[in-house]
Amino acid sequence: MSSDNAGARNGDEKQGPGQEQAAAGKRKRGRVVIKAGLCKGCGFCVSFCPRHTLVMSGKLNDKGYHFPEVDKDNCTGCDLCGMLCPDFAIYGFRVAAGDE
To answer: Which of 23, 27, 67, 71 has the maximal Cβ count within 10 Å?
Structure first.
């Protein structure tokens, strides 16, 4: 058995020069779902979004609160917004490459 095969079996497989660039060029894509009627305007989602995808809207929901809106198309679907929302008014999810 050659040492090249042993490395591949152990998960030490090396990428070729073209594969590194292709992997680096791919960006995780996501979507954000906002249920404006449930939002109480705390702003946690806006403050803690790592990609600064959200902003607070100038509009008011039925309860009289400002709610978040998507400002940029750079969501990764990490769902940090959903994990922090005390009202379950927002969540993010990852989108498969062909589903965009």
So the answer is: 67
